[in-house]
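pls ignore typos typing on phone
adenosine-5'-monophosphate-propyl ester + seq
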Amino acid sequence: MTNKTLDSILLEGRVFPPPAAFTARARIRPADHERLLAEAQRDHEGFWGRLARETLAWHKPFTVTLDGADAPNFRWFTDGEINAAYNCLDVHLKERPDKTAIIFESEPGEVRALSYRELAAQVCRLANALKADGIGAGDRVVIYMPMVPEAVIAMLACARIGAVHSVVFGGFSAHSLRNRIEDAGARVLITADGSHRAGKLVELKAAADEALAQGCASVGKLIVLRHAGNRVDMRPGRDVWWSDAVAGQPDHCAPVFVPSEHPLFLLYTSGSTGRPKGIQHATAGFLLGAKLTTLWAFDLRDDDVFWCTADIGWVTGHTYVTYGPLAAGATVVMYEGAPVHPDAGRFWDICQRHGVTIFYTAPTAIRALMKHGEDIPARYDLSKIRLLGSVGEPINPEAWIWYQHNIGRGRCPIVDTWWQTETGATLIAPLPGVVPTKPGSCTLPLPGIDAAIVDDDGNEVTDPNRGGFLVIRKPWPSMLRTIWGDNARYLSTYWARFGNRYYVAGDTAHRDRDGYFWVMGRADDVLKVSGHRLGTAEIESAFVANPRVAEAAVVGRPHEIKGEAIFAYVVMKGARPTGAQAGALAAELREWVARELGAIARPDDIRFADNLPKTRSGKIMRRLLRAIARGEAITEDVSTLENPAILEQLRGEG
Ligand code: PRX
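k done
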């Protein structure tokens, strides 16, 4: 991390105590917090065991809380049996079957509400349809859907019968979809004809067809939801409309109770190699983390209308659109489209019309909406909102203050939640009725979470002026269990760095004098572009898949709205393009990468070079590339460079 960022954060001295009126009604108050911290400190395992018993509905109670025999492949609640869909649906049907579970709004403006009873019936019908196709416990189902209730229904239908879902973000390309289907060995793919995004049609079925045409031999069935109404080709024998698949299926389906450790889902995420990893979560532990943190960090109450704007294709959509709030019996809002369609008031319009009380989004969305000015949110009645959340990347203090002032109207606590696909649920976040907030800090670990900052040798860093690696020292129930099909990669990525002693998150952070955590960013070659996680190696391999590209190196540079932008250095086969030719080629390569990986990976800057700065042993000196992309001076020794003259060219001067 640079001294400049550290200084600016240390200067950020504002503190916002929880509003007294909020604390008075909060689910967790200061005395509860102290009690929970003390309990976790005294007996980590007993603490989680008690919460698991009290929070979830068990088919068979567990007697073993934590099994560390194969650490760091930890197992939780091992001899218990449970069903996640039962916990999200059936438990509510007796007391409040008619409570609204989902309020859905499409981008063109269709609004639909589903009660818990209706949601359960639809889940059961799809679960029965999957069963009729021979899908059962352990089979993988890939879901490639827009943000519609049927995406949640598909997830819960899988959970109902013990099938393992893997949701692939609808913005990913056919190529990315195919890689994920093949890695998971999915038997079924569930998609929609299309989806609406920023006034345009996204042709999901066409992308699914393309993915299946390229391979994916394991897929025998493609279930297609009619949503956008665009024309699609249906292949007889393989493709079936959702409505036909569920026609005649009973709206009751007995849940398949699975052992706690049974995989609930895989979710692919980028790492520092070109191949995305299938993060595998276990049923009971994940569900516990999702539900408990929804109650704690969002202070969820029965009358709340909870809106997490994340897409179902990311972990935030799993934990805080589907499993957490539904297990807690909340009313959730789902919105299909873009935040700026038809204008930058869309989010606030939805909040006003549906009476949203808890609003959770990403800093990149806040920054994008900020650009449109304060007048826009000022037009809307946001008086029902009582709590705001932020996730996905560090939030800059300026955006935090804007959010607090213009959306929270100075009244609402902001919970800045730090977590990852791998952690399953929020680990570091302020309890909104207890912990004073500081703009830009995710504050303190939740009870039961032993987070720390360590140096290169694994020793804890306590000096508030020093940064280090963010690690978690004790296992927690919602942690990932492994990487699908590659446990060696699980061990080497998350544990090997400090001899299996700590879970290594891959982030750098520091703690201030009050013990507050300030996350600085990733320590590895992972970028956060508009809150989306992208591996530089993945983007580089997309470049070199182009037959005219010889070599590429990708780094991040700061971006006002996206957080980070993708900056690529490209060496073409043959002569280095210049002038108009370079411009045309850059445009072409930008589209190429977007097609290979999805529009979220479209590079922002492309700079052509004769070669890349390498050490004599052939290693690309990324630090130099990062400095150039950021327009920073190069302060380090470049004498080990094989080709020092290249630096001028890379700077655009050669
Ligand atoms: O770098 C951290 C950043 O997002 C990474 C995890 O990305 P992903 O698995 O896509 O999950 C995002 C949603 C949970 C982390 O390693 N990150 C996430 N939340 C925060 C954050 N950085 C700072 N503050 C946060 N609140």
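The longest helix spans residues 579-597. The mean pLDDT is 95. more later
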